[in-house]
Design a protein that fits this description.
The structure is a single chain. It contains 17 helices and no strands. The protein has about 375 residues and is mainly alpha-helical. The protein folds into 2 domains: about 140 residues, Growth Hormone, Chain: A; about 200 residues, MFS general substrate transporter like domains (Growth Hormone, Chain: A, Up-down Bundle), CATH 1.20.1250. The longest helix is centred in the first third of the chain and has 31 residues. It catalyses: L-tyrosine(in) = L-tyrosine(out); L-thyroxine(out) = L-thyroxine(in); L-tryptophan(in) = L-tryptophan(out); L-phenylalanine(in) = L-phenylalanine(out).
Length: about 375
């Protein structure tokens, strides 16, 4: 379990580094490199039975490779779509559920038939295919301004310290944090995802403990995955119809509803009620996931979208990883999952309220810019 958690955490922790590679060497090369690393990690995991070795081969190699392969798929869509970016993102994200929903059952069946080692080899074959699929990522937008001017400055004109600082700023571009709206948005999402994985990790255990239901508990992850896929398709189309940063209100609604549904779990008196809540949780997940990339493009523009998405996912890494162990601690302390689900519901509601401020701040900044430009025109000599 800890090996899998490490792999999931590495996907988010590596995101800021992935954004640097995406800007410097492009989406195609970054995704192909990541798929190759993930392929090596899965294949090497099949040749060892040592848990310590798998911490490296699966937890680190496969996790890092997956991060490098995944993030460029969000960025490359902005090269091809603008007016219907939300729909394109929804189709891509929703289609992944066609694989992710039946995959656990397939892996369970394959694992019983051929064993864990050969199952890793089957998964590595999928990552090998991903290497060739990533070759279709043909970038259209020009490289960033920073990469275009890399060689224009003379090294001898500045001190060694200034050159080192310039190189650090060139690769770790923090320009997106100068935008107030991006800072608020990133902080709001990082707050909201603190308890985000709690239903995914603890809901089946809660049902087994509260209702002694072990034969039909497989329905819960299927409902979550299926409704998440539907939510991704629907939210992408709806997001295209909403102008500008007002798309954020979709995230606000999804986070607030997600938090309320988490708090409703302890109130359920039957397994069927938990299924209904799972349907809503999956729908909220689909809305949040799909609309994230279009909002990043609206906030910082296509040239800095890779950095914006990378830093955001990096900020999400710690709260997303910490939420599940905290919920487990509540279960151990109180003897039930009630406090864990109440805890999981608070951060999404708080984060959603923070996100609701972003369009208002953006509107106020636009009004201030109009006033300043009007004053400049009045003071300009005729």
């Amino acid at each position: 379990a800890w090996v899998g958690s490490l792999a999931m955490g590495m996907i988010f922790f590596c995101s800021p580094i992935v954004s640097i590679f995406t800007d410097r060497i492009g989406c195609r090369t970054t995704a192909a490199l990541g798929a190759a690393i993930a392929f090596i990690g899965l294949l090497s995991s099949s040749f060892t039975k040592s848990l310590e070795v798998r911490y490296f081969t699966y937890g680190i190699l496969f996790g890092c490779g997956s991060s490098f392969a995944f993030q460029p798929s969000l960025v490359i869509l902005g090269h091809y779509f603008k007016r219907r970016l939300g729909l394109a993102n929804g189709i891509v994200a929703g289609s992944s559920c066609l694989i992710s929903v039946p995959l656990p059952f397939f892996l369970k069946m394959v694992g019983k038939a051929i064993g864990l080692a050969h199952t890793f080899q089957v998964l590595s074959a999928l990552m090998l295919i991903q290497i060739f699929l990533s070759m279709t990522y043909r970038p259209i937008l020009p490289p960033s301004c920073d990469s275009q001017h890399d060689g224009q400055e003379k090294p001898g004109s500045r001190s060694l310290r200034q050159q080192c600082w310039s190189q650090m700023r060139k690769y770790f571009n923090l320009r997106v944090f100068r935008r107030k709206t991006y800072r608020i948005w990133a902080f709001g999402i990082a707050t909201a995802v603190l308890g985000y994985f709690v239903p995914y990790m603890h809901l089946v255990k809660y049902v087994e403990k509260e209702f002694k239901e072990t034969k039909k508990d497989w329905i819960l992850p299927v409902c979550l995955g299926a409704m998440s896929g539907l939510g991704r398709l629907v939210s992408g189309r709806i997001g295209d119809c909403i102008p500008g940063l007002k798309k954020i209100y979709l995230q606000v609604a999804s986070f607030v509803l997600f938090g309320i549904m988490c708090m409703m779990v302890p109130q359920c008196r039957g397994f069927e009620a938990v299924i209904v809540i799972c349907l809503f949780l999956g729908l909220c997940d689909g809305f949040f996931t799909t609309i994230m990339a279009p909002i990043a493009f609206e906030l910082v523009g296509p040239m800095q979208a890779s950095q914006a998405i990378g830093y955001l996912m990096g900020l999400m890494a710690v709260p997303m990883t910490a939420g599940t162990p905290i919920a487990g601690y509540f279960n151990d302390y109180f003897g039930n999952y009630h406090a864990a689900f109440y805890f999981a519901g608070v951060p999404p509601i708080v984060g959603g309220l923070v996100l609701s401020v972003v369009p208002l701040v953006h509107q106020r900044m636009l009004q201030k810019q109009r006033l300043d430009s009007g004053k400049d025109k009045m003071l300009a000599p005729e």
